[in-house]
Amino acid sequence: MIIRIQCSDRVGLVAGVSDVLAKNGMNIESMREFVDREAGKFFLRVTADKEPASGKLFDQLSAVLPENASIDISRRTQEKKVVVLVTKEYHCLTDILTRNHFNTLGAKVQAVIGNHNVLRDICDRFNVPFIYVSHEEKNKEVFENELKTVLQSYSFDYIILAKFMRILSDEFVSGFFNRVINIHHSFLPAFVGASPYRQAFERGVKLIGATAHFVTNLLDEGPIIEQQIIRVNHTYTPRDMVVAGKEIETAVLAKALTLVFEDRVFVSNNKTVVFD
Amino acid sequence: MIIRIQCSDRVGLVAGVSDVLAKNGMNIESMREFVDREAGKFFLRVTADKEPASGKLFDQLSAVLPENASIDISRRTQEKKVVVLVTKEYHCLTDILTRNHFNTLGAKVQAVIGNHNVLRDICDRFNVPFIYVSHEEKNKEVFENELKTVLQSYSFDYIILAKFMRILSDEFVSGFFNRVINIHHSFLPAFVGASPYRQAFERGVKLIGATAHFVTNLLDEGPIIEQQIIRVNHTYTPRDMVVAGKEIETAVLAKALTLVFEDRVFVSNNKTVVFD
Amino acid sequence: MIIRIQCSDRVGLVAGVSDVLAKNGMNIESMREFVDREAGKFFLRVTADKEPASGKLFDQLSAVLPENASIDISRRTQEKKVVVLVTKEYHCLTDILTRNHFNTLGAKVQAVIGNHNVLRDICDRFNVPFIYVSHEEKNKEVFENELKTVLQSYSFDYIILAKFMRILSDEFVSGFFNRVINIHHSFLPAFVGASPYRQAFERGVKLIGATAHFVTNLLDEGPIIEQQIIRVNHTYTPRDMVVAGKEIETAVLAKALTLVFEDRVFVSNNKTVVFD
Amino acid sequence: MIIRIQCSDRVGLVAGVSDVLAKNGMNIESMREFVDREAGKFFLRVTADKEPASGKLFDQLSAVLPENASIDISRRTQEKKVVVLVTKEYHCLTDILTRNHFNTLGAKVQAVIGNHNVLRDICDRFNVPFIYVSHEEKNKEVFENELKTVLQSYSFDYIILAKFMRILSDEFVSGFFNRVINIHHSFLPAFVGASPYRQAFERGVKLIGATAHFVTNLLDEGPIIEQQIIRVNHTYTPRDMVVAGKEIETAVLAKALTLVFEDRVFVSNNKTVVFD
User: What is the spatial distance between Cα D223 and Cα D219, in angstroms, rounded to a whole number?
Assistant: First the structure.
């Protein structure tokens, strides 16, 4: 079992939780705890070796925690479900599809939605449904309503923006709070906006990076899950930087998805707590 | 306060410990727990925000833990004391001396002992006692007895071998169990033994590393605390590799010492558990 | 054009080569040169912006170089051809197949040969021929002869061992000198041999790595092309190390293949010169 | 000898230069060449094994190069001279002083100038002159004139801003074109300006970095020499980020200085070409 708790801090929280687990005969295998002292918040992730003796674990935990406590209890075998949104670039999607195919993603891809029709073939090769929802000649509201209609036909935990190049409205995003994960083509907060690799080239940087983050109504400003960088040098053209960028984007998104799917990421105050 | 516990595993340990802390009015700021399931061992590191209400914290903790439990309670302000053993190379020693001088080492250097007399000057510059104990024309027993005599005149928690190029006997090492820290000039277990950089050059490796470890009676085989690497390439001569190696040796030893002095390292079964 | 030269060193080699290029109206875009002074060897890689004016570039270069000089001249558009040998593990193969599919491998996969029949499906999905050559109930000579028979039906520049778990004989390897590339599941020279991740777990290392190298008659001892590492810690089981190892193996092999396919790697004296 | 050439590009430059070297009996040990095709610029760094036969190397090289060519010829034994400007932070300065002391800096520190008087002691310990030039109760012009007066009493190649917290005027900087090196406390262009670690903390980044660059009249916008990063996480307070930042600042500045002092860095078009 994985038990995740997020609440306001006070003395005795760990004692209360661990006492409940012990009374259920559950042995704690690993425990990570963090108190954000500025914000007065408490975060706990516990893995335990067995199912609780009683069926009342949630209620028992609630009884020892503050009223506002967020409590998640999941079996490790519960696989997450995801829908992937893409545009034209294949690198992140293909990595997700192959991990999905070989059951190492930690989630099951329910469908891929593209606002262009170019990535259907690779989805077909892995027997994953591809739905084409064009944004052309539509205003954002109409486009997003069509997206939502497609999404409603699937059950899913997360939406992954795997190089989806449309900006989603606040209204759309707020409907999936902390459930939309994006890969951003730069080491945020550097080079926000368009053509980050051109910007990086012009600036002559020696490192380029990528950032996976939850999407909020603040463009490129949501809680960061993972960042990595690679070295570049003067011989890199903007095009070379794009190629190198794809490698790092793929790696960063893969790492972030693993962290999220293993229930290692908490969101609070536009930042993440990651028990990696 | 930092509380560290190491014992055999059983259900309810975290509950017991956190209950004791709560009853002492101590709020847990951070908690790291690990169970080595193969070995059946339990490791816990807790930081709490205040002193215990009662003066009986140790006894109270003992009462809820297995008999064999190792319990360490320390104030964060308790600075470790160390003695440094060196030969001729200055890079690790100088880094330690400067951190010591500016109070960022997390420990206080009581003395430096050299089996050559070449590093006295740099110690003098930082007003740290340097004691010359030559190994020449002595058998190991005589040499180590002289070392011990000098060591006995200081109070210390750890002995740091900062490029000390003599192999210490089992008998000597066992007198300071898990208290002797060495920096090894390779990415162990590669290139064990002499001239690792020459070996690395001959093999044409693309990375070289360094390893900080506790010293046991097994030469170069003690519990690893920290390892890092840096890239090298075909243009590196063996001499260039030595220069690069010094940078990485300095960085790895500094990192390992920080981890140890912050009470983040447990030793068990010839391996370490590091709550970093 | 990419021009690669490897020969014994003497004064005036660069002058001779660059004079020939200038007389052919070729502008040098990038030049990397290295002299291995211990071995007295000269290595040069030049990229030039156009085709030579005359059709006699090779002869003109030969005229200014020592007799033993190795001279390679290739158009950048000349794609390498490769055959991939596999056993059961999919991670390196799938990465190669997707890069091949999207034309970013820098080579074209002619066929995949497996000594087990488990990776046929993924090859089928990418329309790449898969040939099953079982090693069972055959001695090595018979098995390798069957491999050679299959190989002879393809034109290829390199053989890639993408987690091919059979040891090839000296005789086989020597038939493809410096043309067989292997990914080894450890940071060589550490943990040579079987179960490197189990070995790494037992030793409690803090980093694990992977090594891509040319295969020679010395098992795991051929010229190293690329090495990378990732951090691990006490929470990693041997199984977790295997999972982490697959990520690093995939990345290291991909990097090594890019270097080789871009003609950036020279082999000399059981080491590589890599102009990256 | 190290020969560095920077000029507009045309066919035959390498041929011309290498022919001159060959005629002087100089064997090329290593050669790095780069053409910036957008800017039409040519960069060359050659190391040769001996002194030229004639005393006219510079003139002979000029004869085969465009008129505007910048030609640097230096003996490897020619040590650079530097003056270091500091404020209160010791970490970069101490690293420079120890490398200077043990002759591994690749340059000799002529003097340290502080706008506060707090780092005199550490300079005294290494017998390096410290000059206190307060900025207080002076306008920038007066302060910088005092700096210049002190600087004029020393011969030096570079000014190193080792955590010098005053912004220098365009007029001052332009007097030392491409000779002033700064360490900036962030992964530029992220977190430009004050309190970058506080900004990084607020944003919840997973990496922090540092940037060494030449100082131009564009604040924090000069040519980047080197950048590196380290991982941070949710447990880092702003203060912890400052501590981690000091480690990376020290490492980045040390690396950048090595590159510059070994004549590996060219500046062009507000970017650097680094032959590392």
Answer: 11
B217: closest CA among B178, B160, B273, B265? B178
Q: Which residues does chain B have within 8 Å of residue D30's beta carbon, measured at their own beta carbons? A: 235
Enclosing H/E stretch for B274: strand B271-274
pLDDT at B189: 65
Rounded Cα distance, D136 and D114, in Å: 12
Whether the Cβ atoms of residue C31 and residue C45 lie closer than 8 Å to each other: yes
Domain that holds residue A91: 80-274
Q: Is the pTM of this model over 0.90?
A: yes
What's the order of all strands across the beta sheet hosting C70-74?
C70-74, C2-8, C41-48, C28-36, D28-36, D41-48, D2-8, D70-74
Considering the domain architecture, whether residues B108 and B195 belong to the same structural domain is answered as yes
A210 vs D: CB within 8 A? no
Chain B contact for D167, CB < 8 A?
no
Tokens linked to B65: 């833990």
Q: What is the CATH number of the domain that holds A163?
A: 3.40.50.170
Domain count across chain A = 2
Residues A257 and A143 in one domain: yes
Asked if A234's CB is within 8 angstroms of D271's CB, the reply is: yes
The residue among A56, A74, A92 that closes a domain is A74
What span, in angstroms and rounded, lies between the C-alpha atoms of B187 and A102? 33
Question: Same structural domain for residues D46 and D143?
Answer: no
The verdict on B113 and B135 lying in the same domain is yes
Instruction: List the CATH number of the domain containing C64.
Output: 3.30.70.260
Subunit contact A18:B11, Cβ cutoff 8 A:
no
Among B74, B106, B129, residue at a domain's last position = B74
Per-residue pLDDT of chain C (276 residues; tens, 9 = 90+): 999 999 999 988 999 999 999 999 998 888 899 999 888 999 999 999 888 887 899 999 999 999 989 999 998 778 899 999 999 999 999 999 999 999 999 999 999 999 999 999 999 999 999 999 999 999 999 999 999 999 999 999 999 999 999 999 999 999 999 999 999 987 766 776 677 788 888 888 999 899 999 999 776 789 999 999 999 999 999 889 999 999 999 999 999 999 999 999 999 989 999 998
Closest to A266 (Cα-Cα) out of A105, A30, A13, A45? A45
Nearest to A62 by CA among A111, A7, A104: A7
| Residue A197 one-letter amino acid | Y
Do residue D61 and residue D139 come from a single domain?
no
Q: Tell me the H-state helices in D111-261.
A: 120-125, 140-152, 170-174, 196-203, 238-261
Contacts of B12 in chain A (CB under 8 A): 18-19, 22
Residue with tokens 């046991």: B216
Q: Which residues of D touch C275 (CB under 8 A)?
A: none
Active site residue D220: yes
* Pair A121, A234 in one domain: yes
**C15–D10: do the CB atoms touch at under 8 Å?**
no
Whether C31 and D27 lie within 8 Å, measured CB to CB: no
Buried b (16+ CB within 10 A) or exposed e, B86-122: bbebbbbbbbbbbbbbeeebbbebbbbbbbbeebeeb
Reported ipTM: the value is 0.91
Tokens 């990378």 identify what position?
C228
Coil vs helix vs strand at C82: strand
Q: Distance, in angstroms, between B218 CA and closest chain D CA?
A: 33
Say how far apart CA D46 and CA D60 lie, in whole Å.
15
CB contacts, 8 Å: C36 with chain B = 234
β-sheet bridge partners, residue A28 = A48
Residues B26 and B105 in one domain: no
Are C233 and C206 within 8 A, CB to CB? yes
**Same domain, residue pair A84 and A183:** yes
| Nearest by CB: D94 against B90, B98, B122 | B98
